[in-house]
Amino acid sequence: MASLQIYWNRCDGDVWGELYAVNLDDPHFDNLAGVYMVWLGGNKPAAICAGSGPIREQLAQ
Q1: Helices (DSSP H) in 1-61: which residue ranges?
Q2: Among 50, 25, 29, 32, which residue's Cα sits nearest to residue 40?
Q3: Residue 55: how many CB atoms within 10 A of its CB?
Q4: Is 42 exposed, middle or buried (0-12, 13-18, 19+ CB in 10 A)?
Q5: Are β-strands 46-54 and 33-40 bridged in parallel, bridged antiparallel, or unpaired?
Q6: What is the pTM of this model?
Q7: What is the DSSP code (8-state) at residue 16?
Q8: Which residue, 2, 13, 18, 35, has most beta carbons within 10 Å?
Q9: What is the pLDDT of residues 2-58, one digit of tens each?
Q10: CA diameter of the chain
Q11: Three-class SS of residue 29?
């Protein structure tokens, strides 16, 4: 079975970004595609959604 490398991207300061605060116009997202996961943190963490494709376009929906 082939292995898969997973890279978790964080915001400046090595912190998780809040979805509505992430600047999707940043050049970091130019031609960036892959798998993404959105989750709710806090006292009751939960997965909100997961998907794949062009990250900027998917998160903007």
Answers
A1: 55-60
A2: 50
A3: 20
A4: exposed
A5: antiparallel
A6: 0.73
A7: P
A8: 35
A9: 888 888 888 889 888 888 889 999 999 999 999 999 999 889 999 999 999 999 999
A10: 38
A11: helix
- Yes or no: say if 50 and 23 are a contact pair by the CB < 8 Å rule: no
- Residue 51 phi/psi, 5-degree rounding, is -170, -170
Phi first, then psi, for residue 44 (nearest 5°) are -125, 70
Instruction: Name the token pair of 48.
Output: 């909100």
DSSP code at position 17 = P
What b/e readout covers 17-26, taking b as 16+ CB neighbours within 10 angstroms? Answer: eeeeebeeee
| 27-38 core/surface letters (b: 16 or more CB in 10 A; e: else) | eebeeeeeebee
SS3 content of the chain, % helix, strand, coil (to 5): 20, 30, 50
Place of tokens 């494709």: 53
